[in-house]
Request: fold
Amino acid sequence: MTSAAPNATATGAVTSLLDHVRPLDAGAHVTGAAFAGDMAMLALGDGCVLLCDAAGERRVDVHPGGAVLAAVGAGDQFVTGGDDGRVVVTHVNGETRAISDEKGRWIDAVAASGGAIAWSCGKQVAARDAKGNVRRMEAPSSVRGIAFAPKGYRLGLAHYNGASLWFPNTDAAPEALFWKGSHLDASFSPDGRFFITSMQENMLHGWRLADKKDMRMSGYPAKPRSLSWSNDGLWMASSGADAAIIWPFEAKDGPMGKAPRECGVRPAKVTQVAFHPRALIIAIGYDDGAVMLVRLTDNSELMARMPAPGGPVTAMAWDAKGKRMVFGTADGAGGLLTLPV
Amino acid sequence: MPDMPETNTGADASGKIPVTVLTGYLGAGKTTLLNRILSEPHGKKFAVIVNEFGEVGIDNDLVVGADEEVFEMNNGCVCCTVRGDLIRIIDGLMKRKGGFDGIIVETTGLADPAPVAQTFFMDQDVQERTRLDAVVTVVDAKWLTQRLKDAPEAHNQIAFADVLILNKTDLVTPEELAGVEAQVRAINPYARLHRTQNAKVAIDDVLGRNAFDLDRIMELEPDFLEEGHHAHHDSDIQSVAVTVDGDVDPDKFLPWLNDYAQREGANLLRSKGILAFRGEPKRFVFQGVHMMLDGDLQRDWRPDEKRTSKIVMIGRDLDREAIEKAFRACAV
Reply:
C-alpha cells in the first residue's frame, strides 16, 4: 500500500529538516506535549505550560509550585494534571480553569476524547463527560495509564496485574483483564480491537478485546513507555530499544507470531515515538536528544535535531494536519518543527 | 546497544540522589527521628515519602504521600517484590525543577523493608537516578522483647538494617538495655548501632552512609567491641559468617553464590562478601538483597593486607553447616 507523503519529502529535494526547527527554551523538564489546533504546548516540571504558535511563545503557570505530571490536548484546550492534585484546563488563549482538586494527591494520568476528560490519582479514577458530570471509581491498585476507547464512552485503565475496562456511565463493574506484573501506559488500537499496555518488565502486553486473548511483545532493553499508532491503524510504534519497534496489527491476531519492523536504528535509545497523523511517517526521539523522521514505505530518514545537550527527548506531538511537530527534553530544551511546503 | 544502568560509580560523582529508608515498628520513634533529621541546620532539601500525612513537614521539604503498593515482578521469582508506588513517585520527583539533595522513605511500622530496598535494584529508571544509601531501623528498647515475640516484621526490619537506632534507652535499666542489645545483635551483628533517647543521633550517623556502595564495603566485622556477647536465640533470623584463610576459585564461588541466592533467596535477607580470587590483584566485593546480587572488583589488595575471603549472610533458618561446607569447597 502506498500512502501520500507530505509535500516536503515528496519533492526529493529535502535532505534534512534541521533548518525547519524553531528552538524552544522550555527551561524545565518537559513532561508532555500536545497540540490544540495551531497551538503547540509543552508541559513542564516547574508547573508551567509553554504555549507556542507562529506569533510567539508564552508561559502559563498552571500548577504554581508544583510539576505537571501528565498532559493532553483536547479540542481548543489542554488538560494537565499536577503533583499539586489539580486537574487544569488551559485554553489556547492562556486562560486556565481547575476542574478538579484531589487534595494534594498526585494526578498520575490524564486522557481526553471528544470533550470528555479522565484522570487518575492513585487508585481513584474520575471521568468527566462533555457536560461536566463526573463519575468516579476505585481501581484494584494505582492506575498509571488511562486511555479512551475510540468508540463509546469507555476507558481502559492500566494497573498492577492487569487492566480494567470501565464504562463510566453505567453502574456495571469494570471488566477485568488479568496479566501479572505492573502495567504502565495504556492505548487502544484505533479500530478498538486491541488494548495495549507497557509494562515494568520491559515489554508490551496486549489483549484482543473480542476474546481477551493475551499478546506479549517482549525483547525490549528498556521500558517501552511511548506508544503511537499509524494513521491507517495498521502499525503501532514503541520506544524502549535502539530503534523504533513497530508492530503490525493488520492481521486478525494482530502482531501474534509476527516480527516487528525496526526503524531509525541509531546508537542511542529511542525514548519517544509519534506517527504522522496523515502519512506513514514516524517521528522518533532519542535519549541523546536527537529527533529523526522515518518514512515507513522506503525507510528514508531525515534528521530534525542532531544529538545535543539537554537530555533525552521526553515528549513529542504532531498537530492534526501533520504540518508541525513539537518536542521537548528532560533538561528543558525543545523545538517546533514546521514541515517545508 | 542497550544502555546498561551504571552501578558502583561513586555515588556523588554519578549525580545520583541518595535514598534513606527509615523503618521501625509502630511507636519506636521513626517520626521523631525523621523530624529530627529534617530540622537539623544542614541546609539540605529533602523529598520525604511517608504513609501518613500530618506529623511531618518542614517548609523547605516536599512531603509525598505513598500507598506502599507492593507487587511481584513478572520474572518468575517470588521474592522479586518491589514498591510500585515508589517507582511512580521517584519518576515524578525527577521531573521537578530544582530537585533534591536526598530522598527519605518512611515505611509503615508493619512493612517488610525488602520490597523497598529491591525497588532500587530492580527498576532501571530508579537505578539510573537514585542510589539506596542505607536502611535505618529504629528499635524501641522497652518493647522490643515483646515485639520479637508477636511481630515477624520486627525481625526483618532489624535484619535488614545498615544502621540501628536503639531508642528509648531511658525507659529501661542498664541490664534490660544490655539484654535488648544482645537480642538485636543476635539477629544483625553488622549494622552500626546507636543508643538514643528521643531518637537523638548525629545526622551523619544516619545519612550519607553509602551502605550499598561496593566501594565503601571495607571490612565485614561485627559492630561491637565486647567479646562473647550472650547467645540469645529469640529469632529464627541469624547471621552466618564464614572466612577462608586465603584465595577462592571464582569459577567455583560465583556459580555457587548465584545458585544459592536463587534457591535460598526467599530466606536470605542480606548478604555481603569480600573475596580474594585466585590470580586477581583486586578485591572482589558483593552485596545482596534476597536473590538480587551486586558484585564487582574493587581496589587492589594492599601489600600489608592478608588475602582472605569472607562472606556474611543474614537470613531465616539458614543452614550454617551447608554454607560453610560449600564456601570452604571454593578455597584454593
In short: Chain B has two domains: 14-216, 237-328.
